[in-house]
Amino acid sequence: MGYNLKGSLLEVCDCEVLCPCWIGEDPDNGKCQSALAYQFDKGTIDGIDVAGLTLAIACFIPGNVLAGNWRACVYVDERATDAQMNALLSVFKGEKGGPIADLAKLIGEVVSVERANITFDVKEGRGTLKIGDSIHAEMEPYRGPTGEPTKLVESIFSTIPGSPAYVAKASTYRSTQPALGIKLDLQNHNAIQGHFAFEG
């Protein structure tokens, strides 16, 4: 039956603005330490409704983003039933094909999978992402002369393939991921917002 997912993305990392990974260049610090979350406004996976849920990933990218070998901790919305959690994980492991499978191929090791209380909130362009006690980010897109968000399109890498990304800045990005060797407390680093429509 496959999947059909629509919703919003919030993403933040320790690169400067704009993160070079999105255009296929090496990350600013030689590595990229990121967190991203997908909120599903609408969606089904093999007939299982996942609307209203969020899945988040903390990543350690050891070099060029396209070279893969990422290490990741996956967080599933604590409100998800076992069936919903298994369905979401099957998609994000690449088992259901489609655009998310291409992204999953870059992950060399999933270090952990756990449920978490995830806050995903966007109001008037300002995004807040909280994952349990381990990640907290506040971000806002850059805007052009008309007031519309600045868009990145046709980038060689994207966590929302097929959709424009809004270039943003995180006023705050805190992340503690002992399993990935990540401990960050940063201000004014790269962030991305966007919307997605995935089918597979």
Q: What's the average pLDDT? A: 97
Give me the count of strands: 13
The helix/strand series, from N terminus to C terminus, equals EEEEEHHEEEEEEEE
Largest sheet: 13 strands, mixed
Q: Indicate the low-confidence ranges by residue numbers.
A: none
SS summary, helix count:
2
Instruction: Report Rg.
Output: 15 Å
The amount of beta strand, in percent, is: over 45%
What is the helix content? under 10%
Query: Gap between N and C termini, in Å?
Result: 9 Å
Structural class, judged by helices and strands? mainly beta
| Overall morphology | globular
Description:
- With 200 residues, this protein is mainly beta.
- It contains 2 helices and 13 strands, in the order E-E-E-E-E-H-H-E-E-E-E-E-E-E-E.
- Strands 1, 2, 3, 4, 5, 6, 7, 8, 9, 10, 11, 12 and 13 form a 13-stranded mixed sheet that branches.
- Strand 2 and strand 3 (48-49) form a beta hairpin.
- The longest helix is centred in the middle third of the chain and has 11 residues, at 82-92.
- It is globular and about 40 Å long.
- The model has no long low-confidence stretch (mean pLDDT 97).
